[in-house]
Amino acid sequence: MKIMIAALAAAAMAAPAAAQDAKAGERGFAQCRTCHSVVKGQNRIGPSLAGVAGRRIASAAGYSYSAALKRRTGSWTDANLNAWLTKPSAWAPGTKMAFAGISDAKRRADMIAYLKTLK
Question: Residue 100: exposed, middle, or buried by beta-carbon count in 10 A (0-12, 13-18, 19+)?
């Protein structure tokens, strides 16, 4: 019984990842384009998001990050991107990013799938 429950839990956790839709994420990214570029080295109000997936947090060249984001360690993993996109001000209190977040888990997963396509 425990094995069956573990298998069902693992399948449920894998389902959202399989359901990611990078094209839907690209459409959702329209709201981000005001502040973020997808061209490497082209920072705007926010840093360029080219190559963001897997990149060290607060490491885009030439961008002046808030102290709140500089205090975060690690890299932009799926888990960190998900937490950040859920509510940036909760994940990095004091951040200068004035974006409320994406409450819908599917929309966040799609956005992460799109961000992973940016090289």
Answer: exposed
Query: In degrees, to the nearest 5, what angle opens at C-alpha 9 toward C-alphas 87 and 114?
Result: 40
Task: Give residues with Cβ within 8 angstroms of 80, minimum separation 6.
Answer: 57, 72, 74, 91
21-115 maps to CATH 1.10.760.10? yes
Per residue of the chain (119 residues), give pLDDT as tens: 445 444 444 444 444 444 699 999 999 999 999 999 999 999 999 999 999 999 999 999 999 999 999 999 999 999 999 999 999 999 999 999 999 999 999 999 999 999 999 99
| Amino acid in the structure at residue 4 | M
The CA R_g of the chain, rounded to the nearest whole Å, is 15
- Which of 56, 60, 58 has the alpha carbon at shortest distance from 75? 56
Residue 75 phi, psi (nearest 5): -130, 175
pTM, 2 dp: 0.83
